[in-house]
Amino acid sequence: ILSAALVNTPPIGSAVYVANKAYLEELTKVWAVENLKFNITSNAVSPSLMLTNLTASMDERLIEQIKNDRPLLSTEEVAESVLFLVNAGQQINGVNLIINAAGNIK
Q1: Is the pLDDT of residue 13 over 70?
Q2: Helix, strand, coil: what percent of the chain each, to 5?
Q3: Which of 10, 27, 29, 72 could, after both became Cys, cross-link 5 (CB 3.0–4.6 A)?
Q4: pTM
Q5: Confidence class of residue 103 from pLDDT cuts 50, 70 and 90?
């Protein structure tokens, strides 16, 4: 599980967090190529903000501002995406599925 901050505007103060997620995104691509011969796929999911233990201490004003821009994700929605990738065939490999309600489309 990565972060939509890789394609959205990252929040202030998240440089180390986003840099580590970017590293994992590239590692996912390398693993996809290296493990293809073993019939192992490597994919990622990059959700936008959802309420979890990581975001529990966020300022409520910031959460409200984000809610005004796009709906918050539920952990269930992200879990469904992960399940899709787990059950997908080998043609879906090295993918980063971005779930961000069309925020910062590139």
Answers
A1: yes
A2: 45, 10, 45
A3: 10
A4: 0.80
A5: low
